[in-house]
Write a structure and sequence with these properties.
about 20% strand, alpha/beta, three-stranded mixed beta sheet, Rossmann fold
């Protein structure tokens, strides 16, 4: 799908339109929506409770706050012109709700990929009233003659098989770019005997390396360089030198 600059932030997944028609009064979904509980039909609940209207008002109130500027990617072979898009917390809440409204609940556990999946995963856990929240950390090592883009993934942290075996697990990250991290995590979750689904806020469809893999749930398509409100805007973490310990005062 070719995305124009005007449409980049408004493209939605096929079943991800936030502004839904009212549910029929006699529908089973309307009955379920009247008293949503964890594991229930959140989509019906959100539609009936007017959450979509509130999010529409929030979106209107934040129009014009996002200013994009030309940005040249520094990531190896990715030389295409990209835009920087800065999101605020209103945007994140809207994206989270759009994901939650699609989910095939209930889940036995959430698995958050560090670091990008920590905040959105926590918000999803809060929305679903879930307490069984796990984390996974994957690194792609680089060094002399080895580029991180080509290295083999290595787990720094992953839950024990006993915490996953036989469970339905939702894997959460902020963005599906090339897909290597989340596909690696999904494969190991399935290898632990669990059923795995994936959810992200953004999917960079044209960057995806896996022909037969894509997120099960996502809020928006994008090809922009997205900055989330929990990130450092200057992205200079690697430039910060470690300071020596402060000597104790006698």
């Amino acid at each position: 799908m070719e995305l124009s600059p005007q449409s980049r932030r408004t493209v939605r997944p096929p079943d991800g339109n936030l502004l839904r028609a009212p549910l029929p009064a006699n529908s089973a979904e309307a009955a379920a929506a009247s008293s949503w509980t964890p594991g229930g039909n959140f989509r019906a609940y959100a539609s009936k409770s007017g959450l979509s209207t509130l999010l529409k008002l929030a979106r209107e109130s934040t129009k014009g706050r996002h200013k994009a500027c030309p940005y040249r990617s520094l990531r190896g072979e990715v030389e295409a012109q990209m835009d920087r898009v800065y999101l605020n917390w209103h945007d994140v809440e809207e994206l989270i709700t759009k994901v939650v409204m699609q989910l095939n609940t209930p889940y036995d556990a959430l698995l958050l990929i560090t670091r990008g999946g920590i905040v959105p995963g926590g918000m999803i856990a809060e929305a679903l009233k879930m307490k069984d929240v796990l984390t996974a950390a994957v690194v792609f090592q680089s060094g002399p003659g080895v580029r991180a883009e080509m290295s083999w993934p290595r787990f720094q942290q992953f839950p024990a098989d006993a915490l996953l075996n036989g469970k339905k697990v939702l894997i959460v990250d902020n963005i599906w770019d090339r897909g290597r991290t989340i596909v690696t995590v999904k494969s190991r979750v399935q290898g632990s005997g669990a059923t795995a689904e994936t959810a992200v806020l953004h999917w960079k469809q044209r960057q995806n390396l896996f022909e037969n893999e894509k997120p099960d749930y996502y809020a928006e398509l994008t090809e922009d360089w997205v900055y989330y409100p929990w990130q450092r805007i200057d992205d200079s973490d690697d430039l910060v030198s470690l300071r020596p310990p402060t000597p104790e005062l006698s």
